[in-house]
Structures are given as C-alpha cells and as structure tokens.
Amino acid sequence: xxxxxxxILIVSLxxxxxxxxxxxxxxxxxxxxxxIDELARFGKDSLGRNNRIAFTKGDVEARSWYMDLMKKAGxxxxxDYAGNIIGKRKGKNALLKxxxxxxxxxxxxxxxxxxxxxxxxxxxxxxxxLNENNITTVHPLELIIFANEEGGTVGSLALAGELTSAxxxxxxxxxxTIGQGIKRIGGDPDRVKEVKLNRGDLAAFLxxxxxxxxxxxxxxxxxxxxxxxxxxxxxEITVQGFANHAGTTPMDMRKDALxxxxxxxxxxxxxxxxxxxxxxxxxxKISTEPxxxxxxxxxxxxxxEVRDLSSEKIESVFKRxxxxxxxxxxxxxxxxxxxxxxxxxxxxxxxxxxxDAIMRVTxxxxxxxxxxxxxxxxxxxxxxxxCPVGMIFIPSIGGISHSPKEFSTSADMAxxxxxxxxxxxxxxxxxx
Length: 432
Ligand SMILES: [Zn+2]
Prior knowledge:
Layout (H helix, E strand, L loop, with lengths): L2 H20 L6 H12 L16 H16 L3 E4 L5 E5 L9 E5 L13 H16 L8 E5 L8 H6 L5 H4 L9 H7 L19 E7 L4 H4 L4 E7 L1 E10 L16 H17 L6 E10 L9 E10 L2 H22 L2 E11 L2 E2 L2 H14 L3 E6 L4 H5 L5 E6 L15 H21 L2
Parallel strand pairs: 3-4, 3-5, 5-13, 6-12
Antiparallel strand pairs: 1-2, 2-4, 6-11, 6-13, 7-9, 7-10, 8-9
Helix pairs in contact: 2-4, 2-13, 4-13, 9-10, 11-13
Zinc ion (ZN) binds next to loops.
C-alpha cells in the first residue's frame, strides 16, 4: 500500500471516530413505555388496585423482574444487607469512584405507576443504550434500586449510615417491621450497619423522577433541575380551653379550644405567606375532645408541618406562628403549647457542579428547563450525605402523585432519560 492511500485511510478513520463521538445517542421511548407498563403489572391487590408496597409479594416479584433485566443488560447484580439492589458496570479506570444513579420501585398504598418507576426504568435505559452503542465509560457505573423508599427512604438511609435499630423495629404498611421486610427482600437486618458508605465513596449520584407537583406542566417546561429537597419539621399543637355545656354557657363566657385552633390554622397560613420564598406550612391533622355536638371543645390537638430548603426559614416561620398563637391564646382564654415531633428531616441541597452539568446537557438538547425545589422527600437527600447529587424532574400531568391517576407521557419520560444519560456521560468526562 502506498503512503497516500495509508494517510487517506487514517484521515477517514479519524473522521469516522470523531463523528461517532459526536453522534447523538438516543434512548428508546417505546422501550421505556413498555417497561413502565410491564412494571405496573406487579403488586395488584385482590381488587386489582396498585398496592406494590415495599416488602410485599408484589414488591418482591417486581424486584426479581427488574434484576433479570439488569442481568440481561450485563450488570453484575447484588443485594446489599439493607435490601438495596446494586448493578455494577465496569469502567475503563477501575481506580475511579463509581458514578451512581437510580430510584425506587416500591409505591405507597394505592399509589401510581410513575413515582420511582420513571427513574428506575430510565436508569435501565441508560445502561441499555450504552450497550447498544458499545460505550464504556471511564468511571465505573452503579445502578441502585433503593429498598422501601416510600416507608422512609430506608435503603438510602442505610447507605448514609443513618438507619437506626429503632427504625428496624418500626412497623410498615406491609404488615411486617422494617427489619423483617429487609430480610424478605434478601437483606440482613443484623448487618445493615455494614452497608454504610463514606463521603467520597461515590463520584456522584443522579436521580430522574417525576415532579409530583404541577409547576412544570403549568409552565409548559420539559425538564426541572432540582436545587434541593426541602427539610420537613412537625410540631404537635395542644390548645387547652374548657369543656362546658354547649347550651347553658353564654357565648362571652366560653373558652372554646376549637375556635382558638381555627384562628391558629388561619394564622399558620398567614405566617407562611408573610415571607418571601417557597416555604409551605400546613395543619393536616386535627382532633378535638371530648368531641360531642353538645359540648364546647375543651382540648384540640393538631399537627403543624413546615417545609423549606433552609432550616433557618423553617424556624422563622415557626417563630412567627408562635407569636400569633400568643395573641390568639390571650384573646380566647386558652393556652396553646407546641411539642416538637420526631419528624425533623434536614433540607438537602443538590450539588452546583452536577446542576450545571444537567443545565448544559438540557440546553444543548434544546429542551425547555427551569430550576426548582423538591417539596417531596427522595433517596437523593440521603445520598447527599455521601456524594454530590443531582435530580432531574419531568412533568407530572395534573400535578397528581401518590395516586393511581399519576401520569407522565412517554415523550417526557424519554426526554428525562436522555438528560440522565447525557449528564452521566458529561460527568464521566469532567469529574476528576
Ligand atoms: Zn419517589
């Protein structure tokens, strides 16, 4: 072969490989939809309703179906002591920490087919597309399906080293305790502490998820980049009045605990609205004693919940509610007290570098995008204790979630999976 022909061959080879590197690799929208539909078949109760609660038969069967697909995609699959499913794919550099991604396939009682499922099927699609395009990343990859997300992000709590023995003894909607449930899905509750990861054990963690709210759909935006997952704090409020005869006690001589509580519920709403920002405050549970039509309510107990991306903001809203409660108590002749509850999750911020990678990828793909916060809890918030995390949201039609009416279109799921795939590839190139 003469030298000219050789150099022509080399140049064309270079052009070919450059084109291959730049070529857009595509997820398969139809395959994503088919797998979402297949997953939806698992966990139906006797009335045909969605009840794939963690640790139940449906959860066990769905996990085994999913693990089969992972194995078919060439992943090295294992279940850790907390019951998390881990699928590993080798990278070119075994010394690098893995880039992880995933979600959950358990659901709340009478739940929907998209919460957790979109991220789980999207993660599987990522691996499938890499296989189809013969791509080996530099970093090793890890696909994680977390155990019992809906019962308190159990699997990711264990990875963060925060799953306590007390939590293992708690009852779940499956009828068994968390510890018993972990055993049923192939974990070992006695060794759960051993799954703890240290900061830096993963290069990054990404989760694709449905928004579970109505902002993206309302604003006709295709992708949400999550800035953080809100912290949640609960207080029990006790309003103490005086139970007395509802017929013989004149209106000006009453200490009506429910009347004072009603004013306080309005004050909670006003307090949350009196700050700039996206904080929310809710009274979602209330009970009254003695609870008879002919007795003025003597005691009211209710639960106050405040959520925000900043712990300080949560405390500020609470302080304002407390101030308002003082004047309500004075004017109604009642006493109002607040008792902190054991629900007190810290806000978790996603990583700026990961956010930035998602933004560049999404913009390059030509999808509309906005930053937003997550008002719901996710495994990514526990993973933030271990490594830089990012979350990608797609629209929830009607803003409906935790309901059989939950729905996202196949086009939106495909866009989400495409962003997940390309963000992993971008981080693979850029993370040191
Ligand atoms: Zn979820």
